[in-house]
């Protein structure tokens, strides 16, 4: 089985595809799906559509599918488990070509479940979480309503049916597909629920595609028919171990990420710089731009692992995230060759730094914890190919960043630099 994953941001593409790499499949993430001629058992494409209009997102998603889809390949549309972005419009664009949409965004390993067709995050309704309120205000997090608004007819599959008789379950899905219904919303609260869904739908003859987060994807990857494909995900042998410092870039402002940063500083003793948004808004025209760029270089020259974050002020707008991340990447670019390992939190942040330094695709190697992927650049226009960890901003346990830092530290032959916390410019 060959898999094409289409995601709307980079960290999502990686955390969805990493389960296939962990199962022993050759897995590549591409940032340029319209031009990259990637050839792997699993190809995950980042279309970078989260901040576009629904119509623009649908058009770009369909273009990526047409550019990358191959005969015999199964389609997985990766969506955010907290329903951010233009996912419904993207699913509607793909459905006429791919068949019944099996919609199951649950990711139990990260606390995301689906009950009654509604998303729950660590036992709370999605609408009550800071993640949802930050970008959606009082808009309801209603999967069915989103799909209907995008022009799709829907049906629901509850836990009682999913956990019941296998033949009745298969008949139910076949009936939905045969009725002309375009999207089936599937409740799931455990990994076993998702595994049941994966096993059944992977063997069905009806045209269908999967819509989910990293949760359903890892269950599909675990199936025997997938895991026996014979590929081995291994690090490129020609890479030398690095003694250079680790750079941790954080663009997310979620409460989860705040706790992760605090624990990393406490246990890892890494240095920290928090760049004011105003510096990033003005870019190279800001009076302190060169000073910030120099300070970043000084830290990396001093062999100090560096946590570099985007600050927040009263003028902050979540819609400016991509712009701020791009400017943060420009601050780092002159010093990127000094970096022995990179951790990028937030899809926009990860994409900004990789495209800025000329890295268009990654080979996924292993999963550090649920949703936290370790990779190497397949090619780099600068010739520099450090280990790279990507993580969605609101994902992971409180020690996710620390675990990523430990992984990069232990996978490289590094000296033990003097790590001292410094204060950012005011």
TrEMBL record:
Family of this protein: Belongs to the four-carbon acid sugar kinase family.
Pfam families assigned: NBD_C, SBD_N
Domain Four-carbon acid sugar kinase N-terminal: residue ranges: 3-219
Signal peptide: none
Gene Ontology MF annotations: ATP binding; kinase activity
Domain Four-carbon acid sugar kinase nucleotide binding: 247-401
Keyword set, alphabetical order: ATP-binding, Carbohydrate metabolism, Kinase, Nucleotide-binding, Transferase
Protein name: Four-carbon acid sugar kinase family protein
């Amino acid at each position: 089985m060959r898999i094409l994953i289409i995601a709307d941001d980079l960290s999502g593409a990686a955390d969805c595809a990493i389960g296939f790499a962990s199962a022993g499949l050759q897995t590549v993430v591409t940032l340029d799906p319209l031009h990259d001629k990637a050839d792997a058992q699993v190809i995950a494409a980042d279309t970078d559509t989260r901040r576009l209009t629904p119509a623009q997102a649908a058009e770009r998603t369909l273009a990526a599918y047409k550019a990358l889809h191959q005969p015999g390949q199964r389609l997985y549309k990766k969506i955010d488990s907290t329903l951010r972005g233009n996912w419904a419009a993207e699913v509607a664009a793909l459905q006429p070509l791919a068949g019944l949409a099996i919609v199951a965004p649950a990711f139990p390993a990260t606390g995301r479940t689906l009950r009654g067709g509604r998303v729950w995050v660590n036992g709370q309704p999605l609408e009550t979480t800071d993640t949802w309120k930050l970008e959606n205000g009082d808009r309801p997090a209603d999967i069915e309503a989103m799909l209907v608004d995008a022009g799709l007819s829907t049906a629901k599959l509850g836990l009682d049916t999913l956990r019941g008789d296998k033949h009745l379950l298969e008949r139910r899905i076949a009936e939905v597909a045969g009725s002309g219904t375009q999207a089936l919303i599937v409740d799931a609260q455990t990994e076993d629920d998702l595994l049941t869904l994966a096993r059944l739908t992977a063997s069905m003859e009806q045209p269908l595609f999967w819509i989910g987060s990293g949760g359903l994807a890892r269950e599909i990857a675990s199936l025997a028919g997938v895991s026996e494909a014979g590929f081995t995900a291994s690090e490129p042998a020609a890479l030398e171990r690095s003694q250079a410092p680790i750079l941790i870039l954080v663009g997310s402002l979620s409460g989860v990420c705040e706790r992760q940063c605090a624990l990393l500083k406490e246990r890892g003793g890494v240095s920290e710089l928090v760049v004011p948004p105003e510096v990033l808004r003005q870019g190279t025209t800001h009076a302190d731009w060169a000073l910030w760029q120099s300070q970043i270089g000084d830290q990396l020259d001093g062999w100090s692992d560096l946590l570099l974050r985007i600050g927040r002020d009263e003028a902050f707008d979540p819609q400016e995230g991509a712009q701020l991340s791009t400017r943060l990447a420009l601050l780092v670019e002159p010093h990127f060759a000094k970096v022995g390992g990179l951790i990028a939190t937030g899809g926009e942040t990860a994409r900004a730094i990789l495209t800025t330094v000329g890295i268009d695709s990654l080979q996924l190697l292993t999963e550090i914890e649920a949703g936290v992927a370790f990779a190497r650049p397949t090619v780099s226009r600068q010739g520099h190919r450090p280990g790279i960890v990507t993580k969605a901003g609101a994902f992971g346990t409180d020690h996710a960043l620390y675990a990523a830092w430990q992984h990069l530290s232990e996978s490289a032959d590094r000296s033990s630099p003097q790590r001292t916390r410094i204060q950012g410019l005011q």
